[in-house]
Description:
184 residues; mainly alpha
Amino acid sequence: MLINVSGILYELDYFDKIYDIIYVLISEKLEAYANNVEEVSDTPTGTPFLHRLMDYFSRFIKSFIQIIYARVAQIDERQKGSLSDLVSRLVYLIFELHSKKMIGKLFDIILDAEEIDINILHEIRESTEKSHMMQHLAKTLIQQIKTRLLIPGVITQSIINYFINTVKILQLVDPTGTIYGNFL
């Protein structure tokens, strides 16, 4: 049905309107898929979470978008630009979804630093850089440290070990040192 609507909208010169409709529909699907991928993950850190999201996007969502646009007989340069913009916005959304999920888990990832797969840290770095969420990562991690670690009853050695692990992890996640300024 959406494919037929895209042809009608093109004929009425409202083709750009479908751009926003498709974005909303697909972003909801991506968010649902991201939640599902995390729920069925074998590990608490969601080991190829970003890879799974990108694979889902490449195999299903991107082809769906191309089918919709292909149904329109003649796509001018403006519509081709709209297609490119739509794909770019959705890729950004994937990085943002991944960043939000993994930033929420970063405290626990640091706790299990000895057992963590280095690829997860590279995924976190990639997604936070591409979604411009490094400052959000810093604020969230500081808040979690204050509420979960720097509280009465936590053993001093545990606090020291956590901060050592934090430095190790942040060297991989933020090699430029942007986050360190928030800790000082």
